Amino acid sequence: MAPEQPVDPEIVTTSANSNTISEMASNSSPEGIQAGGVRRTFGDVVAVDSIDLEAPPGQVTALIGPNGSGKTTLLLILAGLLRPDAGQVSVAGFDPVKDPRAVRSRLGWMPDVFGTWESLTCREVLSTMADAYRLPRAGQRARIEELLALVHLSEFADRHTQVLSRGQKQRLGLARALVHDPSVLLLDEPASGLDPRSRIELRGIVRNLAAEGRTVLVSSHVLAELDEMVDRAVVVARGRTVSVETLNGPQTPTHRARPWRVRALDAAVLLQALDRQGVSHGPPEREGVQVELNTEQEAVALLAALVRDDVPVVSFQPSAGVLEQAYLALTEDRR
Predict the structure, then answer these.
(1) 8-state DSSP, 290
(2) Which phi and psi angles does 30 have, rounded to 5°?
(3) How many angstroms separate the CA atoms of 105 and 5, rounded?
């Protein structure tokens, strides 16, 4: 039997007698993404063992884990490009295996590497995708101009994609994923190759898409960026879900004390004040003194106490993000 080959959802179209993809997307289910007990093997290699995941609409959910933990395989399953060996998957209320056309009509897929036709211009790439999704010709031009402006590629609209930088191709990939106005977005390493300004802009775009009620699932290794972008995170390792971290809301049971770094003009005065407050701390370093605090409320209380004690505090900030801390604690075996 020939090996299973992924199918690019960007080039799958409906039949001539069916509704257009855009019409289907406008009537999409309000449900987000649900996956339970998903398993996928490649011969003797277990890529996904038993992953559970929920990504609700109106939120940005991160999928994080070490290389080889099953993230990309899971995204391919959600996108309908791979068939799971076991488990249940629902995207916008539809099963990617049983009803792949309905899923693809509602899904925007941005892979980690943007494959494109180098002989086409940015405008032509988006126009080709709009035709593939059978968007009405009358509104295509306005939609393409809107997307080019959104990802700051208007000035490159008529340049061939072969001259684009890695970051510019990433931005074009995001625009391509949004052509048909999907209700669910799968973004695999969307910040890869982006300069700092573009990363900040990407963060704003993703947050706005979620605010519009879309389901956004982001897989990335740039944990510092995710801290400010996502509402919740699913941590996977060895092909299994090991934790769900909530960033906007009550902390999960896996929440641990968070390291903060305090720097003052006089380190000796700072250490004396911390000792009086009974706060455990590390040795003074160039970047300041590290303390372990359980909540942001504790951080506020400590800062207020230091100010009352006339400690000349210069900076007071987390020394590691919530996701970075959770990731390091839950993936100590690097798998």
Answers:
(1) E
(2) -75, -5
(3) 20
Q: Where are the domains of the chain?
A: 9-246, 258-330
If one counts every other C-beta atom within 10 angstroms of the C-beta of residue 252, the result is 14
Q: Which two tokens stand for residue 124?
A: 């032509």
Separation of alpha carbons 176 and 187, rounded Å = 12
Which CATH class name applies to 9-246?
alpha beta
The answer to pTM > 0.90 is no
Backbone conformation region of residue 80, classed left if phi is above 0, alpha if psi is from -120 to 50, else beta: left
pLDDT tens track of the chain, all 335 residues? 444 444 443 333 333 333 433 343 343 344 899 999 999 999 999 999 999 999 999 999 999 988 888 999 999 999 999 999 999 999 999 999 999 999 999 999 998 876 768 889 999 999 999 999 999 988 999 999 999 999 999 999 999 999 998 889 989 999 999 999 999 999 998 888 788 888 888 889 999 999 999 999 999 877 777 877 899 999 898 899 988 888 765 444 344 567 889 999 999 999 999 999 999 898 988 889 999 888 888 999 999 999 999 999 999 987 766 677 667 666 665 54
Structure tokens at 55: 């990504």
Q: Distance between CA atoms of 281 and 292, rounded to whole angstroms?
A: 7
Question: Under CATH, which number does the domain 258-330 receive?
Answer: 3.30.70.100
